[in-house]
Amino acid sequence: MGSDTLSRVITRSVRCGTATGSLFLVWLCLTIVPNAVAAVSTPSSTSEECLTCHHDPDLKKETGGGRHASLFVEPADLAQSAHNALTCAECHVDISEGPHTEAPQPVRCGACHRKPHETIPQSAHAKLGGSGSSGNCIACHGSHRIQTIAADSDVICSSCHGRQAKQMAAGIHAVGRADKTRNLPTCVTCHTAHAVKSRRDPLSPIHRAQIHETCARCHADPKIIAQERIARPRVVALFEQSIHGQAILQKGNLAAATCTDCHGAHEIRRGVDPVSAIFKGNVAATCSRCHNNEAAQFRDSVHGGAVSRGISAAPTCTDCHGEHGITATRAPGSRVAPLTVSKTCAACHEATPVVEEFGLAPRRAGTFFESFHGLAVRGGSPVVANCASCHGTHNIRPSSDPRSTVNPRNLGQTCGKCHQGAGAQLASARIHVAPGFGEHPWVTLVRRIYLVMIVVVIGGMGLHNGLDFLAHLRERWPVEDRMDGEPRVPPEVTSRLFERWTLNERIQHMLLFATFTILVITGFALKFPDSWWARPLIWIERGYAVRAWLHRIAGVLMTLAAIYHLAYLFGTQRGRTQVRLMQPCRRDLNEAWGMVAFNLGLRPHRPRFHRFTYVEKLEYWAVMWGTAVMAGTGLLMWFQTGVLTRWPLLVIDLASVVHYYEAWLATLAIVVWHFYSVIFRPDIYPMSLVWLTGTLTGEQMARDHPAELDEILVAEAVSSSLPGDERTPPRAG
Predict the structure, then answer these.
(1) pLDDT score, position 8
(2) Tens-digit pLDDT profile for residues 378-402
(3) Is residue 644 part of a domain?
(4) Which end of the chain is more exposed for a tag (fewer CB within 10 A), N or C?
(5) In this predicted model, what pLDDT tens digit does every residue of 294-346 receive, in sequence order?
(6) Domain extent at residue 186
(7) How many domains does the chain have?
(8) Rounded CA separation 344/348 (Å)
(9) How far is CA 19 from CA 10, 11, 27, 435, 614, in A?
């Protein structure tokens, strides 16, 4: 770069710097200098100078405390004011020096407090201080002794809202207010400081649609909950899910109860305080503000009377319906829903201390859950009778009260609501009974007979099959250890198929198998509704109705199958032959003893069975007997209302106990006796296929039915020796 170019750059830079410096001097003259001059020229008027006049006692007395009395200022007010660091002239900016003769202009608080000043005109306090620019501010905060909202809100508000302030002071939120470290609400916590709105304004934090959110600022804040040790941290969440909260939030029903309706707005007290609206003795009165009819019934009930006498163990509205999470009476999670109300009642009526202390009838809830009604409730029936169906809901009275729905005079009408025409029979019988507790002696006798029968019969079957199982294991030992002389099967017969069941008989067996399985599952699902295998029925919509109708349909089909089987036995030649061969005889006893002796190793060979063994006969006639008993007792229970119009409840009770224990006997017999013969017997395992194919091989016939096989072979030999037109076809498949 040449010297001339460098010289030009320097010259331009100097010129540019000169221009910038000139602009800076102009800005300095227009801003800083005038302010500095003004500061120098303004007299240093201090608050002490102002007080020489405004603290003059004569000024306070002038004209008898007239308009000049407001000009009197106490130094103590200034010292205790939030503005104690400011001088008088900083608020009264139009007074530059004193003494002055002109009245000062109103103070404009908005010069410093812009946001509150802009908010006040839209608040409920907009016209509180007149039309002055800062009149609203002075009305609450004062003029010279300025009070702050953070420290003195309750004091400020009490100047106008004295009644609410007294209520607040008596409530739980005022306890411990002296401890500034605590998170206790003040007036502005709920109402805000400057944007105070009417409770009727939808935007107000104390509007009915917003009040629960206002309460949630503390009662849903984890930090405040932990610091204040709030015992119930989910009250707001439960309220929002309740029927009251849903009515407000989803339906916009502002008549629904919210926090302040139960707890109060300002005088909020603990539940243990007798004055509190949520004190146990006052809960019914609190709820009566919306639910007057129900509360009146409750007060006249046995529970309401106990509560009024100060018995804390007696239930009130919140004990049954809940407190914050109250749901509709038909909602699945409600404590008073048809499927859960009995458990709610049981919480007291099964509690030993409550029962003993107040002399309540024992085992009321337990006997209910063991009854048909209770089992149906546990199984998911929403229509079956529960505690409230008989005893009432709010108007519960002791049975000795003539107005009680369970008084002997009224019990027939109460039961008749479901069992039309049967109320008289039901009213004459004991209701809350259970095995060994208050039941009829005949029912107890039948139950004991069945229990003994189950132990003896099923135990005997198990012992018999156990010995047979050991005998089959013994036969699997080395061949040289076996006993000689066992019957041999001709080679040409070994693989030959012999018909055992016809297609008709196999279809009958499959129908019996299917209906019996459904009956077992759906029947025991009523008795054991909480078991894992019964839950799929409950998961289905209206699970109880599905279970009940499946059980009834299966019962009808089994009964029809039994009727058809009887027609088949006596209406066909094969059926008549089968039933003749199935009849018990002396030979069965000999074969049974011979089989036991063989299993014990007392005999070298099994008995030579014919068409049906004693095992099959015993099982067949047990099925016939069980089907008749189960069908008969099942029909009695199905049409119990019609039965009770003619016979006492004892008939239904006997039918129920017989039906239940006969079901146990039949099920255990099938599992222990039948399944062993066709599945678990070592020489048949994993399954006999006769029920599917209808045939047995010659080897199987020689093992299980050797006498019948001999008869078939002899008959075929005789037939083969006859002329061709006189021969009978062989029975082989």
Answers:
(1) 54
(2) 888 888 999 999 999 999 999 999 9
(3) no
(4) N
(5) 999 999 999 999 999 999 999 999 999 999 999 999 888 899 999 899 999 99
(6) 151-268
(7) 1
(8) 8
(9) 14, 13, 13, 113, 130
